[in-house]
Every structure is written in structure tokens, then in C-alpha cells.
Specification:
With about 325 residues, this protein is of the alpha/beta class. The chain is built from 9 helices and 16 strands. About 40% of the residues are buried.
């Protein structure tokens, strides 16, 4: 939902009527996981996806039929037949997609996502509406669906549940992961752009006002004019977050790495040659960090994709995403 947030807001501001489709079940090698969203307007605008394209057209037609008066429903898509004429999943997977009209509960969801809040959305697959809930107990929508909220927090999750009110789909939205980039260098500009595409909220940490500017980092969510030991604080160092140190200067590198190693942050990367890595690790050992601590540092940072800045930035972002998804060991350097 967060990936189509801006488009939904634009459409709603323009008075468009919107239908929403979400994958509520994904079996075998489905192209998109449960919780993947597609939005469709009555005028034919489309955002998001529920597959890699094999069933999108059919879902769009269903969504527009719903906007024309059809009731909300759950659609089932299985593999295509041999000739490929039937609507189906050519990947061999199987998905179920719920299609419904955009409601005031969804409007509250968009506002909560824009504020970076953790919320859970319950969608009744039996036609009983929706319920939006916060961790502090606030709710909007049909309170009869509250039974489905058991275990929804802290999230994230996207699960289908049987309740006394019938089957429900429960999706818990958590704030996007944060990529803390230490050093407002040219490589950081490229990495910040890629991070935005990958769904990360980027913080550029550098005390130098001539370097850390909105013109140089237009896609960054936050620019922090401070030293890394001041900026790397617990709210931005969760297990889902990342720290990448690009300054190539011990005055930045060592304090940044020390702050990251004292936190549960999920990924720590350091730019620099093997020699630079050895120097930084020696400085950290002098501060009391153990070999197990230092093994958390990915250095030299990123997959080796080439020597250009573009290739280096791509390799860094690829390694961060792989680590986030549990697709590589703790240290790949």
C-alpha cells in the first residue's frame, strides 16, 4: 500500500472513484506475496500490482465492474491452461485477491501511513467491511472485526484468519526501514536514490552544511547536520534498519560504526579497501568491541558489481536488501 500512497492521494484529491485489490492468499511460487496491492480508478488509472502481469488485466476489469455496482468479492487465480488462453498464473502459483471499494477506513489508513505509524487493517472477506487499529487501542471502522486483531502487533504481517464474523485478512503496516547514510559524498547521492526506490526512508548524516543540502539529496527523507555519534540514535537503529558509512574518514567512520555496533540495527556497511577496514577494526577493538561485534560489519560494503559509482551504489543496495530478507550471511565482505 505504501508504494502506491502518493498516486492514491493524487487520485482522491482529484475526486476519482477508486477500487482496491489485495492479495489475501498466495500459494506455491506466487509472483507477489500476500499483502500486495493494486488500485484502479473508474477512469482507468492503475497503480501497484498483484502479480507480474499475468492476471492484472482481469483484476482491473473486476475492479471496474465493482465500481459500476458489483459487490466486493474474492477472486481465485490458478495456473493457466496449456494454451495460455485462460486467465491464470504462468509461474505455477496460486493467489486469491479481494477487491473492494475505497472506504473512509482506507482514507484513515493512508493518513496513518503518511505519518509513519504502525497500524493493522482488518478486511472482512465476508462483506462485513473493514477495521483499522493502532497499538494504543484506537480503532476506526467495524468493531465487530476486532477478534481478528489477536497477534497483529507489532507486525509486520499479512495473514488470513477465520473468526466468528467469517474469514478476515489482517495486514499490519510498520514504518518503512531507515537507511542511515553517514557521509554526504557523491556515492551517497546515488545510494539515496536507489534506497527510495527500494522503499527505504533515507537519512543523510553529515555535519557539513555545504555538502548535506536538499539540492544534493532531493530524495532523502531527512538530512541530519550532526556528527554520526549524535545522529545515530535508537529510533533509527531497529533490526529492520541499516547504517552505511561512506565518509572514508576515521573521524566519521569510527564513531558511526561504534554507535551502530551498540545497537540492534540489522545491517552495518563500511566503504573502503581491506586496509581501511583493518584500520577501522583496530580502532574499534581499542574501544572494546569483540571479534563477534566486528563480524557484523559488511566491509568492503556491497556486492562486487563493478568499479563505477553507479555499480558500487547498486551493489550496496542489493546487499542491504538481501540482508534484510535473510538471503546472505551476517558478513559478506
Amino acid at each position: 500500500m505504501r508504494t502506491i500512497l502518493a498516486e492514491l492521494e493524487q487520485w482522491l484529491a482529484a475526486g476519482e472513484r477508486v477500487a482496491l485489490a489485495v492479495v489475501v492468499q498466495a500459494r506455491r511460487p506466487a509472483p507477489r506475496p500476500a499483502g500486495s496491492w493494486l488500485a484502479v480508478t473508474a477512469s482507468g488509472k492503475i497503480a501497484g500490482s498483484v502479480s507480474t502481469g499475468c492476471v492484472e488485466n482481469a483484476v482491473v476489469q473486476e475492479a471496474q465492474a465493482l465500481l459500476a455496482g458489483r459487490s466486493a468479492r474474492v477472486l481465485h487465480y490458478a495456473p493457466a491452461d496449456e494454451n495460455g488462453w485462460e486467465v491464470g498464473l504462468t509461474c505455477g502459483g496460486e493467489i486469491e485477491v479481494h477487491v473492494t471499494q475505497f472506504t473512509p477506513v482506507h482514507a484513515h489508513l493512508l493518513a496513518a501511513l503518511r505519518r509513519g505509524e504502525t497500524v493493522a487493517l482488518v478486511t472482512s472477506l465476508a462483506g462485513r467491511g473493514h477495521l483499522l487499529a493502532w497499538e494504543d487501542g484506537r480503532q476506526e471502522g467495524n468493531p465487530a472485526l476486532a477478534e481478528a486483531l489477536a497477534g497483529a502487533f507489532p507486525g509486520p504481517q499479512a495473514v488470513r484468519r477465520a473468526t466468528a464474523q467469517g474469514e478476515c485478512f489482517v495486514q499490519t503496516f510498520t514504518p518503512p526501514p531507515v537507511l542511515n547514510i553517514v557521509g554526504a559524498v557523491h556515492l551517497a547521492q546515488l545510494l539515496a536514490r536507489l534506497a527510495a526506490v527500494a522503499g527505504y526512508r533515507t537519512r543523510i548524516i553529515d555535519p557539513r552544511p555545504l555538502w548535506n543540502t536538499p539540492e544534493r539529496f532531493p530524495t532523502a527523507a531527512t538530512r541530519v547536520l550532526a556528527w554520526p555519534q549524535e545522529a545515530l540514535t535508537p529510533p533509527f537503529l531497529r533490526p529492520s534498519d541499516a547504517v552505511v558509512v561512506l565518509a572514508h574518514d576515521p573521524k566519521f567512520d569510527v564513531p558511526a560504526l561504534a554507535a551502530a555496533l551498540r545497537s540492534p540495527v540489522g545491517y552495518i556497511g563500511l566503504l573502503g579497501s581491506r586496509r581501511t577496514q583493518a584500520h577501522r577494526q583496530e580502532a574499534l577493538r581499542e574501544r572494546g568491541f569483540t571479534p563477534a561485534d566486528l563480524a557484523r560489519i559488511h566491509g568492503p560494503v556491497g556486492f562486487r558489481l563493478g568499479a563505477s559509482f553507479e555499480a558500487i551504489a547498486t551493489g550496496i543496495m542489493a546487499e542491504i536488501v538481501a540482508a534484510h530478507n535473510g538471503k546472505l550471511p551476517l558478513s559478506s565482505g
